[in-house]
Amino acid sequence: MVRNFNPFKYRNEIKNNGELWQLDGSRFQIAYRNSEGERSFLWFFVVMDVHSRKIVGFSQGNSENHKVVIDALKNAVKNTNYVPKELLIDNGRCYTHKEFKKLEYRFNILGCYVRRHLPNSPRDKGQVERFFSTFQTTICKNEIGYVGEGIKSKRKEGRPSNERLSIELNPSNLKSKEELIKHLGTLIEKYNNLRLNDNVLAPETRYNSAKIDCAYKISENDYAILFWDKRYEYTIQNSMIILGEGTHNKELFSYTIESTELRYRLNLTTVIVCFLKNNRSLIKVFDQNENFITDLYLDDKIDQIQKKMIDVEESKEKLKTLINTKDKLASRPKSEKINSNNQIYKSDSEFEILLIKNKGDEQ
């Protein structure tokens, strides 16, 4: 009776791809061998297109966190080139992080309604929950390292026998983390092409044969401003953008605006710069309303710029040392001051100041 007490959200039948995505995560029930030679587990998140039941995007990580969630959406948008009309998520803490909130805000601007499912109402996102059950019992069941559906499972065959577990969970029989991550992609592809019965087509087939009814088609530039690693404001000077790699790292990346028209238009203005941390060959420049302006490519003479910047810093330090030494000499008592040119200074810096002073006197 309690099971049928709470209401659930009734929805019309989903007729096209892109109308509704469901996002959820679970522990990957196949163990791997970590760097210490012990067994560990990954968490993985999937994005399901509800109409076709295809997994359009996924990601994995060591824990259930906002980065893994964002990576799953990033993968889904990259694979489909659109944002859905509705995205259904749960009420987990990973969805309250400020970085996910920023992405949720941008999805809303593009016309995607990001909705949390009703509490205590598993029917609300039943399709993606059913995926995890099918994925484990049908796809993962015979894989080495599979530990079963979990302690909450009530299925008679939801967990392998203790004899089998003792063999398969031996670290020497397990895949490495890198091997298991690669294998996860293979298993999800296997699910997408799985036909459970004669009356239901495989998710991949259903997806490819259906129409798309999405909120917004994503371009390459849209994708960059949504998902690229870095995005911040920059005021352009000297028709260049120079990006650093942290305050303690001398590596610099320089990008020159070649177009004369853009130089007049952008100098001394503030723009939004987006780039990837692992590929600095290209940056994308947007105005403050997130309208795309131009691509800029990494300059070839960056080594000379780095050396120039480092030399300037070293010259400043030398000048500072000389000024400090001169101030110390000026503050000495008269009895300790040296006022004869044929007397020798005790330190190199003092000797250097004497040479500069004498040279000025000769002039």
Q: Predict the CATH topology of the largest domain.
A: Nucleotidyltransferase, domain 5
What would CATH call the homologous superfamily of the largest domain?
Ribonuclease H-like superfamily/Ribonuclease H
Task: Write down the secondary-structure element order.
Answer: EEEEEHEEHEHHHHEHEEEHEEEHH
Number of domains: 3
**Average residue-wise pLDDT:** 82
> Order of strands across the widest beta sheet?
5-4-1-7-8
Binned strand content: 15-25%
Please state the overall shape, judged from the principal axes of the Cα atoms: globular
CATH architecture of the largest domain: 2-Layer Sandwich
CATH class of the largest domain: Alpha Beta
Radius of gyration: 31 Å
Count of beta strands? 15
Figure out the total of helices.
10
* Proportion of residues in helical segments: 25-40%
Structural class comes to: alpha+beta
Largest sheet: 5 strands, mixed
Q: Show unreliable segments.
A: 340-347, 353-363
